Amino acid sequence: MTTFAIRQYGDPVLRQVAKEIEEIDGRVAKLAADMLETMYGTPNGVGLAAPQVGVQRRMFVYDVGGGPVVVINPTIVGVSGEWDYDEGCLSVPGLSWPIVRPGSVHLSGLGLDGNEFSIEGEELEGRVLQHEVDHLDGLLLVDRLDDERRREAKATLRRR
Question: What is the pTM of this model?
């Protein structure tokens, strides 16, 4: 297996919209395995999107305690509620901000077997699903901050 370097804030690849995966084959399975190894090898890593390792494809992996999950070509099909939580990101290491997101998420996608499945995620799992889909859409957690906090966050990131 291969461990990837995680792309950091400022890398233009993090701002690109990822492309759909058209064929699920051995390369996709290897990418998923390598992404999981990379995620598990980082402190506090519970999710990792393909763009974070420089691969512009719509796929992410995550594990919030129930075992690893691979999601290909995800779509958020419903949200409800609200949950304010201090959110961090492997591409913005060592920093976190309180971000309000829906507290419950319904997501559909494909597994490595090519079959469609859906996930109902609440609180942390729901947040991870939203956070990783954001990465696939070229969004970062600083984009979810209000204007004042976004300015402060960007100033902090520039100083780094």
Answer: 0.95
Catalytic residue ranges? 132
Tally of CB atoms within 10 A around 91: 21
CA-CA distance, 4 to 131, in Å (whole number)?
Answer: 19
CATH number of 112's domain: 3.90.45.10
Distance CA 75, CA 80 (A): 15
What is the count of structural domains for the chain?
Answer: 1
The domain in which residue 88 lies consists of 12-159
Domain presence at residue 24 = yes
Beta bridge partner(s), residue 59:
72
Domain membership of residue 7 (yes or no) is no
Q: Which residues contact 136 (CB under 8 A, 6 or more apart)?
A: 17, 18, 49, 50, 51, 58, 59, 60, 74
Residue 103 lies in a domain: yes
Angle at the Cα of 152 (from 46 to 135), degrees rounded to 5? 35
What does the pLDDT look like over 29-80, one tens digit per residue? 999 999 999 999 998 899 999 999 999 999 999 999 999 999 999 999 999 9
Q: Is residue 1 part of a domain?
A: no
